Amino acid sequence: MTVHGNYVAGEWIAAGTPRDNVNPSDLSDVVGAYAYGDKALAEAAVAAAKAAFPAWSVSTPQQRFDVLDAVGTEILARKEELGRLLSREEGKTLPEGIGEAARAGYIFKFFAGEALRVPGETMASTRPGIGVEVTREPIGVVAIISPWNFPSATPAWKIAPALAFGNCVVAKPADAAPGSAWALAEILSRSGLPAGVFNLVMGRGSVVGEALITHSDVAGVSFTGSVATGGRVAEACARRGAKFQLEMGGKNPLVVLDDADLSTAVSCAVNGAFFSTGQRCTASSRLVVTEGIHDRFVDAVIERMKALKVDDALTPGTDIGPVVDEGQLAQDMEYIDIGKKEGARLAWGGQRLNRAKEGYYLQPALFTETTNAMRISREEIFGPVANVIRVKDYDEALAVANDTPFGLSSGICTGSLKYASHFKRHAQAGMVMVNLPTAGVDYHVPFGGRKGSSYGSREQGRYAVDFYTTVKTAYTAP
């Protein structure tokens, strides 16, 4: 089998320990072999990016636009192919995989435009006759560490703005799903970028990731992943004064009030909690439901869950694909066991499933009779597991929704403009959804949370410029 190599200084390097990328829908299907780099290769990539930075940092906006626009055009033209690769390696259903690939293409096109719109200001000084210019410049070499659950979109929304604003990049994708990031790197390798501007180094986070976050020539690190690893990134960057941006997950509430449309609430809950196999940091893992609608809501959610088809991600009609790998499946099953031991009632699901092909299939699980103090209410499970918390009224629902160490996304289903408006203002989250699933965001607006979910500048949209640039103030006298 051909080994997919790393990309450093404009060259493909196959050296390194190859690792099989296995399809979680069919464990007999090897998607490809991908070369694992080491510390030396990561350091070589940083050196290449540093060498390329002086020229790329002063490249014209038109040059950067042309590159990013071409990348976006090719991704969109190949979205079915790239989406199938994504679904095959990560386990998203094929429609979800194609949708994510398309999103990556649109992200590149959006940031192509942003390359032409880097903001700045000209103003008068307080001193007579002196002019002041406030401009933005790229920060330098940026390390990008992306997760497996959005293996195409997340690298795109980090790489595209980094390049648009004149930075050079070293990207490290997640171990579990390197194929989509490699495919994106291959497109970038043919985009007209000068050698060293973009580099891809695959490998273990403890090896490649550690080399990048501690390297003195890496000016900034954009990281999406676990809370524990995010803390390590923050510590390493703070020690040497590098910028860092962290997205670390959530324990997102969906509040359902008595006056909610039941069909809308059920759709929001099932989509947000279980689609993409619940492997989204924005998933609705806590369903906070007022007592007047609670029983009807639970019954309706279970009926909808029973109708969901869990199967091969590439099979037409599949609603939910497999869990990404054996380790994640074990974690999901452990939390289901924890919930039972805590006294929660497993109302439906939670069983490992057998299908025609051996894979990591898990029946979505719904717990009832839970409290917000339970571990299954406090800790991110990152699987198709949700729990229902019964509350008396809106005030208690809001208090429970906010009682979490996370603050990424928060949702409410209600027919009341009063409660919707109050919730939007008082929900302690970076993103708020009204009568919509907590998962599902646009690419042209800011993404990020509060508390333990995020740290640093927002990702996506025009707010991305804050992380990938530094501000310079220049004074001119006649």
Number of strands: 25
Q: Can you tell me the CATH superfamily of the largest domain?
A: Aldehyde Dehydrogenase, Chain A, domain 1
What CATH architecture of the largest domain would you give? Answer: 3-Layer(aba) Sandwich
Which term fits the overall shape?
A: globular
Kindly give the count of domains. 2
What portion of residues is helical? 25-40%
Distance between the termini: 67 Å
The CATH topology assignment of the largest domain is Aldehyde Dehydrogenase, Chain A, domain 1
| Structural class based on helices, strands and sheet pairing | alpha/beta
- Report the average pLDDT across residues: 97
Name of the CATH class of the largest domain: Alpha Beta
The description of the largest β-sheet is: 7 strands, mixed
Low-pLDDT runs of 5+ residues are none
Strand order of the largest sheet: 15-18-19-14-13-21-22
**Rounded to an integer, what's the Rg over CA atoms?**
23 Å
**Percent of residues in beta strands:** 15-25%
Count of DSSP-assigned helices: 15
